[in-house]
Amino acid sequence: MSISEQIQKYQRAVSPATLVAVSKTKPNSAIEEAYAAGQRIFGENRVQELVDKHEALPKDIQWHLIGHLQRNKVKYIAPFVSLIHAVDSVRLLDEIQKEALKNQRKISVLLQMHIAQESEKYGFSEEELLSFLDEKNLEEDYPNIVFQGMMGMATFTDDEHQIKQEFGSLKFLFDRVRSGFFGDDSAFKTLSMGMSGDYSIALSCGSTMVRIGSAIFGAR
Ligand SMILES: *Cc1c(COP(=O)(O)O)cnc(C)c1O
Question: Which candidate, 110, 97, 113, 92, places its Cα nearest to that of 149?
Answer without folding.
Answer: 110
